[in-house]
């Protein structure tokens, strides 16, 4: 079993390196729970045992992902000519879609009003907030930006969409661009990390500046700034993505425009970002009744 897992992960890593790392954790955990034995020896009983263990230790989304990993692995084994449990017998649990809250324009303005641009770190954090609001990019897409992608004469750049790899343009406001130019000027003065290609640099306590700000760090920055602005409800980088879509929806932008801006290949994915929450529905309904 372990040898097959290694083969599978090597193949998976050729086109989805990050996924292969996550898959490794769940596949070897399956062996820990059900034991190491030939692939043909695993039965439905092992799947039931693994599922029961997962339900005691993880939430619905983690359980679903773990079962997807196992199902994909057994499908791979079959395509390689191995006799094993049919993947159709590995049923996936149903989970309700997460309800991501869209940040409002009022909340965004509160965060900007409480932000500062006196130090390099403060300028970086303010720029992160503005870029998320203006562009609606995924947090990983923002973190992946390199200095070489920025033209100081333009309020736009081209990025690779995270889930599809397709190129798309993102644009930001002139006021955001002014802060971006100021930030780049300071960024290039950090001589000891000039070789780092990342636009946004991180800070590691006791180690100094790192070569790139990771997604988790951006999430913490947004959380801290929302807290300092007095926002009680949870705000994440993804809240800005939903906020971008909601603002464009309320501006009567077409579905095709919003789909293009978010980098979705399927318009069905875009519908999720346009859904009204209860408060938005109430306000919109009242405007129609007046």
Walk me through this protein's architecture.
The structure is a single chain. The protein is mainly alpha-helical and 290 residues long. It is 56% helix and 5% strand. It has 13 helices and four strands. The chain has helices spanning 2-13, 17-34, 44-57, 60-79, 105-113, 120-135, 139-143, 174-187, 215-228, 237-250, 255-262, 267-273, 278-289, and strands at residues 156-160, 167-171, 203-204, 208-209. The chain has a two-stranded antiparallel sheet with strand order 1-2. α2 (17-34) packs across α4 (60-79) and α6 (120-135) crosses α10. The longest helix is centred in the first third of the chain and has 20 residues, at 60-79.
Order of helices and strands: HHHHHHHEEHEEHHHHH
Distance between the termini: 67 Å
Tally the helices: what do you get? 13
Largest sheet: 2 strands, antiparallel
Radius of gyration: 23 Å
Helix content: 55-70%
Low-confidence segments, ≥5 residues, pLDDT <50? none
The average pLDDT value, as a whole number, equals 90
Spatial order of strands in the largest sheet: 1-2
Roughly what fraction of the amino acids lie in strands?
under 5%
What is the number of beta strands?
Answer: 4
Backbone shape = globular
Class based on secondary structure composition and strand pairing: mainly alpha
């Amino acid at each position: 079993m372990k040898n097959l897992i290694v083969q599978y992960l090597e193949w998976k890593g050729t086109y989805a390196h990050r996924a292969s790392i996550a898959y490794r954790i769940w596949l070897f955990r399956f062996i820990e729970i059900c034991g190491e034995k030939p692939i043909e020896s695993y039965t439905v009983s092992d799947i039931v045992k693994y599922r029961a263990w997962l339900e005691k230790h993880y939430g619905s989304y983690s359980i679903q992902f773990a079962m997807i990993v196992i199902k994909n692995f057994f499908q791979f084994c079959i395509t390689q000519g191995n006799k094993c449990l049919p993947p159709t017998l590995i049923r996936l649990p149903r989970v309700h879609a997460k309800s991501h809250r869209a940040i409002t324009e009022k909340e965004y303005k509160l965060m900007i009003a409480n932000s500062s641009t006196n130090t390099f770190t403060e300028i970086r954090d303010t720029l992160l907030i503005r870029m998320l609001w203006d562009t609606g990019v995924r947090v990983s897409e923002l973190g992946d930006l390199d200095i070489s992608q920025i033209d100081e004469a333009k309020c736009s750049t081209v990025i690779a969409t995270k889930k599809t790899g397709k190129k798309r343009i993102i644009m930001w406001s002139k006021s955001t661009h002014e802060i971006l130019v100021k930030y780049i000027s300071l960024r290039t003065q950090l001589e000891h990390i000039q070789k780092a290609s990342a636009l946004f640099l991180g800070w590691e306590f006791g180690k100094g500046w790192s070569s790139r700000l990771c997604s988790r760090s951006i999430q913490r920055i947004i959380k801290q700034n929302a807290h300092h602005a007095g926002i009680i409800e949870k705000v994440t980088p993804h809240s800005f993505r939903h906020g971008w879509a909601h603002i464009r929806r309320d501006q009567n932008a077409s579905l095709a425009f919003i789909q293009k801006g978010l980098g979705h290949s399927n318009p069905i994915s875009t519908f999720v970002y346009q859904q009204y929450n209860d408060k938005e529905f109430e306000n919109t309904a009242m405007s129609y009744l007046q």
